[in-house]
Amino acid sequence: MTDNTFRYELIHTCSQSGARRGILHTPRGSFETPAFMPVGTQATVKTMTPEEVSSLGAGIILANTYHLWMRPGPEIVAAAGGLHKFMNWPRPILTDSGGFQVFSLSDGREITERGVSFCSHLDGSEHELTPELAIDIQTALGADIIMQLDECADWKESEDYIRSSSRRTLRWLERCLRQHQLNNSSQALFGIVQGGVYEGLRRLSAEQTVSFDLPGYAIGGLSVGEPAELMYRMLDIVLPLLPAHKPRYLMGVGSPDYLIEGSIRGVDMFDCVLPTRLGRNGTVLTSEGYLTVRNATYAEDYTPLDSSCNCYVCAHYTRAYIRHLIKANEILGLRLTTWHNLYFLLNLMRQVREAISNNELLDFRSEFFSRFGYESV
Amino acid sequence: MTDNTFRYELIHTCSQSGARRGILHTPRGSFETPAFMPVGTQATVKTMTPEEVSSLGAGIILANTYHLWMRPGPEIVAAAGGLHKFMNWPRPILTDSGGFQVFSLSDGREITERGVSFCSHLDGSEHELTPELAIDIQTALGADIIMQLDECADWKESEDYIRSSSRRTLRWLERCLRQHQLNNSSQALFGIVQGGVYEGLRRLSAEQTVSFDLPGYAIGGLSVGEPAELMYRMLDIVLPLLPAHKPRYLMGVGSPDYLIEGSIRGVDMFDCVLPTRLGRNGTVLTSEGYLTVRNATYAEDYTPLDSSCNCYVCAHYTRAYIRHLIKANEILGLRLTTWHNLYFLLNLMRQVREAISNNELLDFRSEFFSRFGYESV
Predict the structure, then answer these.
(1) Which residues of B touch A63 (CB under 8 A)?
(2) Cβ contact (<8 Å) for B332 and A86?
(3) What b/e string do you get for A265-284 counting C-beta neighbours within 10 Å, with b at 16 or more?
(4) Which residues 6+ apart lie within 8 Å of B115 measured at CB?
(5) Which chain B residues contact residue A331 at CB under 8 A?
(6) B42–A325: do the CB atoms touch at under 8 Å?
(7) I need a labelling partner for A335 at 20 to 30 A (CA). Which of A130, B1, B37, B231 fits?
(8) pLDDT by residue (tens digit) across B234-271?
(9) B296 touches chain A (CB under 8 A)
(10) Rounded distance, CA A81 to CA B31, Å?
(11) Coil/strand/helix, residue B160
(12) B49–A76 CB contact, under 8 Å
């Protein structure tokens, strides 16, 4: 019998940075960490086929429970045999709880102890998301990793507000766990550490979340507009409190600097719409920084998006052609920028893992930052 | 030295129908006929990569001179090394003259002996397309097969109008040919038979166009709203007048019945936006007729678009999933319907060629029509 239980395997710790390289084993296959998870909001990584996403090196993707709940509905996905079959992605999937989109997209939301009531961003219909329902929907979707319902509060909220919000998030975790056990599902349920930008609250939330002995832990409420230094400080506080034999997931992080800094601090998993959303807006990631290829300055530029990139797009297309496609509203333009951006981040994570194995992640950071145009830390 | 001259090779004539199977050799490779040419209006077959188009069995594609003239401009394409390099399609390309789009898309157009003046559909700017300019732009784009400037008149125009329009089209052919010789280009220039739905004018146009001894001949002004029977009658008149050793191209034809009926009458090449445009509107071609997969009736239909189809889409996705993608405005939905529709027509042409070789194209037509839901002829 093959080992298909959910398990984090530590491969190497970088002696230079303390970052860790590992493998996360799941019933639907394993993937190397630190890993970037492309976001497939509505059961599709925008513009891409699953085979393309896989060919770029993604071992796991994320789907959004809120969106799939609203459309097509979890019962449609469940009747298809679950999300993996529905969307033709046989590898691991992580679903979020739906909470983040309720807070960021919907109207007229109200938080009570019971849950969050809100109006759908699609048709204004009224709904309530409770911890139990968040688990039930995620059970119906059938992802391999599922998330507790939490509140991702504004980072500028007062310490008092964040304290009571974090406590409620912990009580919601308890209810999620109970519902998860009731559903008798083998999905791995992750808890989420909150606490805003307050060191004491972060510490408390980490310790109390860990006390539930879950298969993995996420860090939420960061990369939501706060200064980078504040985020790094919170990571420095939280990560040492998380058990070394469990995976750690930093939610909503996808810019190159955050991916590298998060990895250095011991994060194993990241997700963000940045590469796909940027791409659809005509901006690409290159080794020398962001490049808005839709700008007129590239109309007659017959060089690749990034001359040092090895992806399919950079091998076959010029900035002039891609700019033409974008200006002409051609879907292939969005496909090519998305493709390149996903490759860029997935390749960055490959380089990060390699640098960990070579005990030189701090050197890699210096070189990458200086070429990309980030200020050195 | 390999044989890379432009040449039509007859392989077999169907004893049952009289249809012909052949190979069109061009300097950029050969393709089997009768052939359907996917349309890459703006230097991209909408939603598809060139490799995908090729993998579906397309041996040649069409691009629209009017669109590329307006955006990005022929000089941008020429500086990229021509259309093939610009769009990463190394195989044969055919460009139209730009005339058809001037007549169908632009505003305020005026036809004189010199050419057509019009306002761009993009920004209203004034332009004039002359026979000479149509050739010059096509020379800059660098397609393997180029078309003369013609007037594709409304099929309801009077016989008098069509007579004088067809005569002008012939005078324009003379000017196109002269410009083509001036440009010293090795592109194959096709003439276009016009004549509306008037038998005498069709005959005259065919004979006079053929007298120019061109490398290939197109039939224009059909499939523009006239009854099918009228189109078939015109084909019955024109095709016997075209030389057997030259390729014949029926412009703007792409519905399954027209492709089969055209092939039976000896047409070698077809083009149409039907498969790509239908797909983007959420309608697909199946062996049992058209299916509008975006309709609510398919929300919980977990069967493929066409159960007897062997394409990638039908192997991996359900109607329910594709409907979800289209309802959710996901680009992958448009990719999958386009992919399937292109496969369907390219596969239909494979079957037509096979039926020609087996001397059973009339039997194939009966079976296809009855299953698809067309009335038998």
Answers:
(1) none
(2) no
(3) bbbbbbbbbbbbebbbebbb
(4) B128, B129, B130, B131, B133, B149
(5) 46-47, 331, 334-335
(6) yes
(7) B37
(8) 999 999 999 999 999 999 999 999 999 999 999 999 99
(9) no
(10) 42
(11) helix
(12) no
Dist. CA B126–CA B106, nearest whole Å? 10
d(CA A302, CA B199): 50
User: Exposed (0-12), middle (13-18) or buried (19+): which is A57, by Cβ within 10 Å?
Assistant: middle
Determine whether the interchain pair B324/A43 forms a contact, defined as Cβ–Cβ distance below 8 Å: yes
A306 in Cβ contact with A290 (< 8 Å): no
Interface touch B48/A332, C-beta < 8 Å? yes
On whether the CB atoms of residues A362 and A17 are closer than 8 A, the answer is: yes
Which amino acid would we find at residue A31? F
- CA–CA distance from B25 to each of B97, B243, B246 (Å)? 22, 17, 11
Using a CB-CB cut-off of 8 Å, the residues of chain B touching A44 are: 325, 330, 332
A67 contact residues in B (CB cutoff 8 A):
328
Name the β-bridge partners of B10: B22
Any B CB within 8 A of A88 CB: yes
- Cβ atoms < 10 Å from Cβ of B186: 10
Q: Residue B227: CA atoms inside 13 Å, Cβ hemisphere, count?
A: 3
The answer to whether residues B265 and B239 touch, using CB atoms and an 8 Å cutoff, is: yes
In this structure, what are the phi and psi dihedrals at residue A2, rounded to the nearest 5 degrees?
-80, 155
Assess whether B154 carries a catalytic annotation: no
Size of interface A-B (CB pairs under 8 A): 98
Residues A354-375 have pLDDT tens digits of 999 999 999 999 999 999 999 7
**B96 in catalytic set:** yes
Contact status of A334 with chain B (Cβ, < 8 Å):
yes
**pTM above 0.95?**
yes
Q: What's the longest Cα–Cα distance across chain A?
A: 61
**ipTM above 0.95 for this complex:** yes
